[in-house]
Amino acid sequence: MCGIVGSIRTNANVVEFLTDGLKRLEYRGYDSSGIAVQTDNGLKRVRRVGRVALMEQAAKDKGIYGHTGIGHTRWATHGGVTEPNAHPHISGDLISVVHNGIIENFEAERTRLQGLGYVFESQTDTEVIAHAVHDNYKKTQDLFTTVQQACANFHGAYAIAVIANDKPSQMVVARMGCPLLIGLGKGEVFIASDVSAVVAFTREIIYLEDGDIAQLTADGVAKLIDKTGKTATRTATTSQVSLASLELGAYSHFMQKEIYEQPKAVADTAEIFLDAGFIPQNFGKNAEQVFKEIDSIKILACGTSYYSALTAKYWLESIAKIATDVEIASEYRYRDVIANPKQLVITISQSGETLDTMEALKYAQSQGHTHSLAICNVMESALPRASELVFYTRAGAEIGVASTKAFTTQLVALFGLAVTLGKVRGFISDDSEYSSALRSLPNDIQYALNLEPQITTWASKFAEKPSALFLGRGIHYPIALEGALKLKEITYIHAESYPAGELKHGPLALVDDNMPVVVIAPNDNLLDKVKANMQEVSARGGELFVFSDLDNNVEASDKVHVIRTPRHVGVLSPIVHTIPVQLLAYHVALSKGTDVDKPRNLAKSVTVE
Ligand code: F6R
């Protein structure tokens, strides 16, 4: 949620980095953006409502040139989407600040600062940072100490970058709860919320830790203190992120690219189990001990990651025979819970920084849960760092706001976990059927991708409809949920999902010839039940769009459209059946002309409540 960048570049225009970096961080928020640059003619700020490209053009038109600057791309939390609310925020023509996160006590700070005579121009929480720093700076002229003093008063989560107009070659950054890294170049230094913003400029990266405050010059880190206030050193690592993975290449959208990357992403993740075997060590050093100790599992996640958890419950209970409970993280964290030290708390998150999930984990730990496992796609992000055990999916960078390959790789991880626990708990002696299912999975996904031309023919029918219903049963019900979420997220068509057996208990009332009903109907033990539910829809004049396997005698007719994957893949069928619902949402979005990669009101990384 919101992305920040900053840089000091001795020999180049900082604007080039700021705008490029912000474009790469747009997935974190894209309602407005801005930069502040120290130029020969003083501090210049450009802000625009809308995409970074608009702000970039404005900066070009104004001919902004300078060596030190900061930038921000926003997902509005405090205050509407307006230019005055866009960052950077400036105080006294001296201090400029960009901020990702939320200052929870901003109201008290605002009152305090208003009492000192500061006039607020925005409704944001961030403006208190600018004025608080300014107030201290007037007295000390020491930017580092000033930021340190200001941060000591803030409650909440933040990553900030601060520059002072009279210190043209300095920047101070601070991190608490939101991601922030420093990129080291030759005679230049960069900061960003995410490594994707800097890898085109440098690969030498320092990941700051919570509570760190650092003073930067073009030569790198001049000073760094940790959360205790002591001087600390942070070692740089070389980022392996490939630039190609951050580019669209031949694709029209990142979502399309990421859907098509799934055979590889899934193969890369499955390789962990296929190479090493289904062994606890894949989940961390202490995993064997932990897996032997636990008597149940609680999974906490949000959105698409929550649906992967719902799918995993079926595998964990049937393959590993371990009681599994799945809960939306934002709900869990605000209720009384009964902690069980023998329960493994699993968090699932593509980004690893979703605040609701992070806080749910902290809450679980505070209530007495001792064992935790994070399943995450971003190395060293907040959730893995706070967890006892970690499994990194190998989806690669996911940039489209709608999660696709992160979901299917989470499913691979969770399937691998179920088989591993099944072995540890003595329910599996021969895992060959599971490894061979994983080995075939990339091909099965490829076959599902090949259905795209057929799916395209359905898209225009959905594009005209105000609503759609998604049905599934058993382990395919979470895939129906995921299909509905993908559709509503990127096409703005209202979509709901139900277990098909629930239809007659209420939602059947919605069915008429204007309500397309998507059914996930693979050839499994529930097929006859699903077919009976489909009859209930047909009898009410509903139009069915069925994703199925070959040889399952679901007959197509005028109002029953069927697309079949080439074979029923058994236990991994939910992963294969995810592909058609992703493609359906994608093509409906194309028909409607919506912004596939940046749907309205959303952002990829949700670091606010
Ligand atoms: C939907 C989507 C979101 C995320 C959710 C959790 O396509 O991407 O629902 O799944 O915001 O995000 P992570 O997995 O980063 O915790």
How does this structure look, described?
Helix 1 (14-24) runs antiparallel to helix 2 (52-61). The termini are close together. The strands form four sheets. Strands 3-2-4-1-10-9-11-14 form an eight-stranded antiparallel sheet, with helices on one face. A six-stranded antiparallel sheet has the order 5-6-7-8-12-13. It has 18 helices and 24 strands. The protein is of the alpha/beta class. The model has no long low-confidence stretch (mean pLDDT 95). Bound molecules: fructose -6-phosphate.
Task: Sum up the overall morphology in one term.
Answer: globular
The neighbouring-strand order within the major sheet is 3-2-4-1-10-9-11-14
What's the CATH superfamily of the largest domain, by name? Answer: Aminohydrolase, N-terminal nucleophile (Ntn) domain
Largest sheet: 8 strands, antiparallel
Under the CATH scheme, which class of the largest domain?
Alpha Beta
- Poorly predicted regions: none
Distinct ligands, ions and cofactors found in the model: fructose -6-phosphate
The span between the termini is 11 Å
Helix content: 25-40%
Tally of alpha and pi helices: 18
Rg on CA atoms, Å: 25 Å
SSE-based structural type: alpha/beta
User: What is the averaged pLDDT score?
Assistant: 95
Tell me the domain tally: 3
β-strand amount? 15-25%
Notable characteristics:
single chain; alpha/beta; globular; Glutamine Phosphoribosylpyrophosphate, subunit 1, domain 1; 23% strand; 3 domains; 24 strands; 8-stranded antiparallel β-sheet; Rossmann fold; binds fructose -6-phosphate
